[in-house]
Design goal:
With 682 residues, the protein is α+β, with helices and mostly antiparallel strands.
Length: 682
């Protein structure tokens, strides 16, 4: 655009332009759009600061924009050379009858990275020759290289004039040889500021997709024709036999976004809470006049849409507890919510804890509009807590909506005493789930010490319901003797856990009350809801689940190896002895209690036969100790009465014949040892 054309532009809103077929009507419209794309005017049609500076340069606004951007990128000398070349006619000649010779001569000026850099090479050649050649010889050198001396002079004059204006504006380009040359990125970012509407993205084959739905190809004479970069910019888009981009260079899409500024359009989709960053993130798409620059990237949605981000933040971070906060107040709120929620699991109701919406409203009323992430919350809390430490503190009255008086700690304990140790009880109200009801967490080393007679009673808060459910499984001939619900309530208060199961105790109590025979076999416990039977979760030292279910006997069988290994490891240092040959210890107690891993273990001592040696071991149950005691005692007899028993064995009737018969099977000494152990056992 010439200086004259620039001055004729009428700035203002497009709707204010006179809709008449005036000769310069299209000029006004095109000028407005051009200046808007270059950032020279704002949406109100007023000149921006950069627009006012552009108006001082009597060259095409696009060229002026490049030069001013070069000032910011610190590459003014290089860009001024290229920009003034674009503002004048191309100095390269290509006569039709000498095209091959011209192409060969021009090849030495080519830069494989960018067609724009060719101008720097031509400029350097021309000035180098002008320093050492006369005018006539310089013209001859230009002609030999198929360069127009007249156009080179015009280019140099435009450069001199624009440089003078820049000096007046306080921007003085470096002379050749001063300082390090500017790098590729800085030069081309500056050029891009004036060529935003001439960018393209590689499509299928050789075609490029441009702005506003346009498509074009790289001109075959370009140095980038073979390379076909993914993203390019061009000095001009021309239509000949097809639409071509001329004077082309590779660019990065990030440059378009940075240079485009407010011309770039950003759309956002799928806002979501991201626990890792403690922010609401969204997928952002960046485009320029319809050309997709960045198809999808995750961005912080908070500054973009604070209201929507705040809602998502409160719901996920504070109501759903998906944010690791440093605030002790919020941590206490969460503990209060969990405590009240546990009452619902225990009482098997969903009408005690306030719903998520109520908790959302609590935070929504107290947090300011600009709190939409973990970072903004922590900053605000630091200031707000100085004025009111309880600004976000919840009270029971904020969370309780139902009566929780019946859900006492006595009725629904959190631990169950087993052989001097307290095992954790966990509650869940989720019918159909495997853990619905009460779950007893058992360390593997204590599995053998848990008795069904203790756990069959579940917890006091569920006993009345379980007794009632059991009574309803009785045959009708027995069931008709009882007013089931009142009787169940009465028995729940009078019966206590002891050495027998609940079914046995209930059967005897009902028989005594009605004067009829009621046996445990009359009940059908398999018809009871699962939550009325204890669920057992067996864990290792790290808390990993080894087995889980409601059948205690099956769990013991499945985990027999793990139970023994776990108990042996816990009890090894407390009682174990190896290599016994005499009863040189006191009478064995009924049980021994040891501490391991912060819990009490009750072990039952007994002698054990340990691969041909007698020893002392602790067992996790009386049954296991009794089973080991006989074999261990027999082995101790063999060692204690070694000489006498060996003599007796050597004189057993028919022993020689037995040795011969046993020879194909094994060693005669092994036979003798087995016989001695059998004698000791008898």
């Amino acid at each position: 655009m010439s200086c004259c054309r620039w001055r004729r532009l009428k700035l203002g809103r497009p709707e204010e332009f006179p809709f008449v077929e005036a000769p310069d009507h299209r000029l006004i419209r095109d000028g407005y759009e051009t200046l808007r794309e270059l950032g020279a005017i704002d949406d109100a049609g007023e000149l921006t600061p950069i627009g006012k500076e552009m108006a001082r340069l009597p060259i095409d606004p696009r060229i002026a924009r490049m030069v001013l951007a070069a000032r910011e990128e610190d590459c003014l000398r290089e860009v001024l050379v290229i920009a003034t070349a674009l503002a004048t006619q191309d100095p390269r000649d290509r006569p039709l009858d000498k095209r091959d010779a011209a192409d060969e001569a021009h090849a030495k000026f080519r830069d494989e990275r960018s067609d724009f850099l060719d101008y720097l090479n031509i400029w350097a050649f021309y000035h180098e020759q002008s320093k050492k050649l006369s005018r006539s010889k310089l013209q001859k050198a230009c002609a030999q290289n198929f360069l127009s001396a007249r156009r080179l002079n015009e280019w140099r004059e435009v450069y001199r004039q624009v440089r003078g204006l820049l000096v007046e504006m306080g921007a003085t380009p470096r002379h050749a040889g001063q300082g390090e040359p500017a790098d590729y990125d800085r030069v081309h970012r500056a050029l891009l500021s004036g060529l935003l509407t001439s960018v393209g993205k590689k499509g299928d084959g050789f075609e490029y997709e441009g702005v506003r739905g346009s498509h074009f190809h790289i001109f075959p004479g370009s140095g980038q024709f073979e390379a076909r970069p993914k993203w390019i910019m061009a000095a001009e888009i021309v239509r000949t036999t097809r639409v071509y981009a001329r004077t082309v260079a590779r660019i990065e899409p990030e440059w378009i976004e940075a240079v485009g500024g407010r011309l770039v359009k950003r759309t956002h989709a799928e806002p979501r809470w991201d626990e890792r960053t403690a922010r609401v993130m969204a997928d952002e798409k960046v485009s320029l006049f319809g050309l997709e620059i960045i198809p999808r990237r995750a961005v912080h949605f908070g500054p973009i849409d604070p209201a929507s981000s705040r809602e998502l933040f409160i719901h996920h971070a504070l109501v759903e507890d998906e944010y690791q906060t440093r605030s002790q107040t919020i941590k206490e709120n969460r503990r209060l919510v969990r405590r009240i929620a546990s009452l619902e699991d225990k009482a098997r109701r969903r009408d005690i804890l306030a719903d998520a919406q109520t908790r959302f409203v609590f935070y929504d009323r107290r947090l300011p509009p600009d709190v939409y992430s973990g970072q903004t919350l922590e900053r605000w809390l630091k200031r707000a807590a100085e004025r009111d430490p309880d600004v976000l503190r919840m009270r029971e009255s904020d969370l309780l909506v139902g009566d929780a008086a019946s859900v006492s700690a006595d009725a629904y304990p959190t631990r169950l005493g087993i052989d001097g140790d307290e095992l954790r009880l966990r509650y869940m109200y989720n019918p159909g789930e495997a853990r619905d009801g009460v779950t007893l967490e058992i360390p593997v080393e204590k599995l053998g010490q848990v008795r069904r007679e203790e756990t069959d009673w579940v917890v006091p808060g569920l006993r009345a319901e379980k007794i009632e459910a059991l009574m309803r499984t009785l045959p009708k001939s027995l069931r008709r003797h009882f007013d089931i619900r009142p009787v169940a309530m009465e028995l729940a208060g009078s019966l206590t856990p002891g050495a027998r199961t609940m079914i046995e105790e209930v059967a005897d109590a009902l028989a005594a009350r009605a004067g009829v025979r009621v046996s445990p076999e009359d009940f059908r416990p398999g018809e009871l809801p699962e939550h009325l039977s204890m669920n057992y979760r067996v864990t290792d030292a790290a808390g990993k689940t080894l087995g889980e279910g409601r059948d205690l006997a099956s769990l013991r069988r499945e985990l027999a190896g793990e139970v023994k290994a776990g108990f042996d490891a816990a009890a090894a240092e407390a009682f174990n002895r190896d290599g016994l040959t005499d009863w040189d210890f006191d009478e064995l107690p009924e049980f021994v209690e040891t501490r391991h891993g912060g819990r009490t273990l009750r072990g039952y001592p007994a002698l054990a036969d340990l691969n041909g040696k007698a020893g002392l071991r602790l067992f996790d149950s009386p049954e296991g100790a009794a089973a080991s005691m006989r074999g261990g005692l027999a082995r101790l007899y063999v060692h204690h009465l070694k000489a006498e028993m060996r003599y007796r064995a050597g004189h057993l009737p028919g022993i020689d014949s037995l040795r011969l018969w046993y020879a194909p099977v094994g060693d005669a000494a092994a036979l003798e040892r087995d016989l001695l152990l059998l004698v000791a056992d008898r």
